[in-house]
Design goal:
It contains twelve helices and 15 strands. It has 380 residues and is of the alpha/beta class. The chain has two domains: 125 residues, 2-Layer Sandwich (Enolase-like, domain 1), CATH 3.30.390; 212 residues, Enolase-like C-terminal domain (TIM Barrel). Strand 8, helix 7 and strand 9 form a beta-alpha-beta unit. Helix 7 packs parallel to helix 8. The longest helix has 22 residues. The structure holds magnesium ion. Magnesium ion binds next to loops.
């Protein structure tokens, strides 16, 4: 290419660039939140099932939230309750009467600012409990807006680490009329047929002999190369948690979840020090401050924030980063696309909890592809 040709080609490229200004995204301008809408979601009663302390599957419901903007983008999120008939109505009232007036007019591209404003507005009755269900759903809807405005799935905005997530099936519940464990066995066989390489079962509802029977069956069905996690749902005191934990450990289980009530921080530290089996907990903790307390006391090996309770994307990712800073593993409590977008961005994430039939490749769920959180109905 001589100088004349070089000049011409450069000029052509420059002209082309002038005719094609860089694409702008809605995030380059200020966006305003214009509306917050909610729907109560009721689910028909399913088959009753039990963990050590709860009856689940009968009274279930939730709230769907939509946050609208002047950019024409709507953010979606939903929150659910497995057993509290009044919970969704309370969360809806908080969203409609307390969250909405605070966030109208704010720019959704500033989720930490919005969180700060909401904490100030709601701290009088406490940033925890059902209030945090409302704030967490709000934050997830806001991140759905941010991802849609940027045109990418949120895990790519958060700093993606992988594009597939190992998943385990929460399948081994207690069922009515199941003394011979046939219903329990079927649930685990189905999970392995569905392609899971790890399952979780409930323990602690009855005596240790019953636990041993359930655990042995699960370990036998799993065979070599598949894992069994146990969940005691807060049922034990410190002595019993240790006594049974030693047995579960010797049987080769992968983790021992929520043996005691979540506020027993010292008890968790003691147990984690005395047992080699991974201690998993966190699904009933609210905000990074509770997790920081647990983690600083060395009370967990696997940190399990729940994105309805712990916080939405903003708070959840901070919890995940604190855990990473302490060299701890991370697993979501619950599944779905909101959890996937967050887990995929964390190198210390080891599992997503889920159940039932999922699209899986070698025991792993592929990343969502839709821009945003994929929390809008129908998003993939
Ligand atoms: Mg649990």
């Amino acid at each position: 290419m001589n100088r004349r040709q070089l000049f011409q080609s450069t000029a052509v490229a420059a002209a082309a660039a002038m005719q094609m200004p860089a694409a702008t995204t809605p995030l380059q301008k200020q966006i305003r939140i214009t509306a917050l809408e909610t729907d109560l979601v009721t689910r028909p009663p399913g088959e009753p099932h039990y963990d050590a302390i709860h009856k689940l599957g009968v009274d279930q419901g939730g709230v769907t939230i939509r946050i609208k903007t002047d950019a024409g983008i709507t953010g979606w999120a939903s929150t659910s309750f497995g057993m509290v008939p009044g919970g969704p109505k309370v969360v809806r009232a908080i969203l409609e009467e307390e969250v909405k007036p605070v966030i109208l007019g704010l720019d959704p591209a500033f989720p930490r600012k919005i969180r700060s404003e909401l904490w100030k507005a709601l701290e009088y009755h406490g940033v925890g409990g059902v209030v945090h269900f409302a704030l967490s759903a709000t934050d997830i809807a806001i991140w759905d807006i941010i991802g849609k405005a940027a045109g990418v799935p949120v895990y790519k905005l958060l700093g993606a680490y992988r594009d597939r997530m190992p998943a385990y099936s929460m399948c081994g519940w207690y069922y009515d009329n199941d003394k011979d464990l046939s219903r329990y066995r079927k649930s685990m066989e189905t999970a392995f047929e569905q392609g899971y390489k790890a399952i979780k079962i409930k323990v602690g509802r009855y005596d240790l002999d019953d636990d041993i029977r359930r655990v042995r069956l699960a370990i036998d069905l799993a065979g070599k190369g598949r894992r069994v996690m146990l969940d005691a749902n807060q049922i034990f005191n410190r002595n019993e948690a240790l006594r049974r934990g030693r047995v579960y450990q010797d049987m080769g289980c992968f983790w021992y979840e929520e043996p005691m009530p979540p506020h027993e921080m010292d008890g968790y530290a003691e147990l984690a020090a005395k047992l080699d089996i991974r201690i998993a907990t966190g699904e009933n903790l609210y905000t990074k401050y509770a997790f920081a307390d647990l983690i600083a006391r060395k009370g967990a090996d696997v940190v399990q924030p729940d994105n309805r309770r712990a916080g939405g994307v903003t708070e959840w990712m901070e919890i995940a980063a604190i855990a990473d800073g302490y060299g701890l593993e991370l697993a979501s409590h619950g599944g779905g696309s909101a959890n996937m977008n967050m887990l995929l961005a964390m190198p210390n994430a080891i599992y997503m909890e889920t159940s039932g039939k999922q699209r899986m490749i070698d025991g792993e769920v592929p990343a969502p592809t839709a821009p945003g959180m994929s929390t809008e109905p129908g998003a993939k």
